[in-house]
Amino acid sequence: MKKFIFILAITMTFGAKAQTNSDLKKHFESYYTQMKAQGDVQGIINAMTHLQVIEPSQQRLDTLAYVYVTEGRNLEALNTIGIEQGANDSDINTEVKAIALKALNQPQRALVFYEELFKRNANPYLAYEIADIKTQLQDFAGAKASVDYGLANVQPDMKRAYYESNRPYEVSMKAALTYMKALVVFNMNQTDNLDQAIGLLNEAMTMDANFNLAKLSKEALEARKANPPKE
Q: What's the rounded Cα separation, in Å, for the pair 118 and 137?
């Protein structure tokens, strides 16, 4: 009899727990929907975190990390999904690691994930990012190859955003890639390629007159040309 009562108690406990989890899941699913409707990002994060505890899911974890990275919370994004490369990582998982590691000034690690994304879906956007990182790593030949791919495959409707000014702005992807080519060409030979780099920056500004970063870079190179560094 005692054994029967013990088993019954255990059964009732697990049943109650299952019911509680089911109710909690419904609650946080409704909460998530409401926070999404309100545009409350922190609320979305809270809801997804609770749902992940109740019912773990790699897909949800990847999405949660993506929300973090779009908010500039890069360390939290990486703490959510880690920095290891897995053979079965989703595109979102891989993209989050690439973006977050680059933002945290880990270009060598970020490059691994950008190149994996490029293998899966080669496009000018990824070519730009890879060229940017390879320029930082002084792999100028590799950077130029990425830029050349981007320029050969860019479409007229593609855009890229820049945030260095007080007001973010967009330019055509072709102008962005031309700007990147100017940086690569200049760094390959900062003396002999100076005029070519300035010419490329002029091209980028002709495509998009509001390209502030290209304008600043051109001014810096022209100042260098007027006052060459002493050897």
A: 18
Q: What angle do CA 124, 126, 127 make, to 5 degrees?
A: 60
CA distance 221 to 198: 7
CA–CA separation, 102 and 130 (whole Å)? 10
For 159, the 3-state DSSP assignment is strand
How far is residue 88's CA from residue 82's CA, in Å, rounded to a whole number? 14
Q: How far apart are CA 85 and CA 59, in angstroms?
A: 16
SS percent in the chain: helix, strand, coil, step 5: 75, 5, 25
Would you call 190 exposed, middle or buried from its count of C-beta atoms within 10 A (0-12, 13-18, 19+)? middle
**3-state secondary structure at position 164:** coil
pLDDT per position as a tens digit, 21-37: 788 888 888 878 998 89
Whole-number Å distance between alpha carbons of 86 and 64? 18
pLDDT at 7: 47
Mean pLDDT of the region 100-126: 98
Distance between CA atoms of residues 178 and 1, nearest Å: 83
Written as one letter, the residue type at 71 is: E
